[in-house]
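Escalated from tier 1: S-adenosylmethionine holo job.
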Amino acid sequence: MSPTELPIADLPIWARLNDVKFGDFEVRDSDGKGYGVVCRKALTTAERPLDESSALTVPHDLVLNVEAVEEYAKEDRNFKQLLDAVGHRSPRADILLFLLIQTALSSRTGHSSAGLSNPWMEYLQFLPRAVLVPSMWTEDERLLLRGTSLETAVNAKMLALVGEFDHVQSISEEIPCWNDLLWQGGAVSVRDWTRLDALYRSRCLELPKSGESMVPCIDMVNHSRDATAHYDENAKSEVTLLLRPGVTVSEGQEVTISYGEAKSAAEMLFSYGFIDQESTTEALVLPLEPFEDDPLAKAKLVGYGEAPKLHVARDGDSVVWKSPFVHLMCVNEEDGLDFRVLQDTDGGRQLRVFWQGEDATDQTKNFESLVQNHPLGAIFRLRSVTVVQERLQTQLDLALSYDTDEDIGDVRPECLEAAKTLRRIEVGILEDGIKALEREKTLLMEDENVVAYLGSAEIAESDLAGEEASSEVDDFS
Ligand SMILES: C[S@@+](CC[C@H](N)C(=O)[O-])C[C@H]1O[C@@H](n2cnc3c(N)ncnc32)[C@H](O)[C@@H]1O
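Tier 2 regenerated the structure:
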């Protein structure tokens, strides 16, 4: 069932009923960005921000975060039963569960007694039906991301969303009142869960006291690198939106905040559905896999404890990379790496990691410093640089193998544009990264330890070839 909608013209009524004060601000359509917040009159702030009567002020009890969901559960024992059965996995999932219930309540058709409506039930109806984040793109649109760093991230996100939704459904179906509300009339579907996830990601704020939270009305403010406003929490724990000091805005001018200065193009597109090239950092994150033929591959993954990643970023004229796993990936048993399964006192088994005979189980993210003072440190570095360069080359070949101008069906122009921008930015980083690594490889090849090591390896190889050749002669005779 598609979510019900309320016209934005009704927002001031909702705000009055729920004690939201708009001060000198109001919500209007913002060209190409959905809604936005504008100033009702011309304002200039001096060194200090304007006083709070000008501010957009939202009472604390409208702030939606994990504590608010817990409070709501205290008032509604049916919800508490549901939350205890499916929730407490992450703050985000608890908030989505709360929002799912509010979505179902807004289209309640059956006779279920479950669910206590809350101001968020109506507020959700002011929010966009669709957000342009890739998890809400069509299948054809998602094909535009092939060969970018978002390809695997978005596929994984889609699978995770389906898994989370199935989990909520399978458990809540067993609780009669929730079965009636959520599933009997088909009140909600995985599309609602996907939309709520997108709304959460694109509208969540990091509040100084309350942490990660959704805040109605303040979540209508758009992003800009040259932000003119900022949000805060006052002594009464209300959330306020104020102009920044030293800012002049004219009547009707949109005010903006910054969604973060250090986000990459991929992160902006993934979380907010747009790329602001002026305020993104040039960076990308790629998944990494151990060598297929490494007998220690599995142990390395278990010891490392999380999915290995490679971070690449432009830094001035160069490109730098970071990947703690690469340094672990590039050392082997003969270098002094060892894994042992130890039995603890209560019978459990534990994988321990050893480097040069010392327990390094808590150091698997720190192998770069562990290996650098080893006599073969430069060799390990050369191996790491080679692995990273190959990974970047594979990604570059993949990115260039897809043509975004190829006709792949019915795609929205905003999605096509965003995918093209992302690909262009990432191809640039990959090309420059490969060149920077080639330079580092050349320098490493000149290192005396590397020269000596490669020289001795060559001798060993030719000795081996000699032995093989003579044994072949023996065999032949
Ligand atoms: C926190 S909401 C802001 C309010 C939103 N415009 C609305 O209509 O509800 C974030 C969303 O606004 C849009 N947005 C914000 N800043 C933008 C910008 N600079 N360019 C394009 N879209 C923007 C994106 O769709 C983003 O996911």
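Residues 33-36, 128, 131-132, 202-203, 219-220, 222-224, 272-274, 276 surround S-adenosylmethionine (CB under 6 Å).
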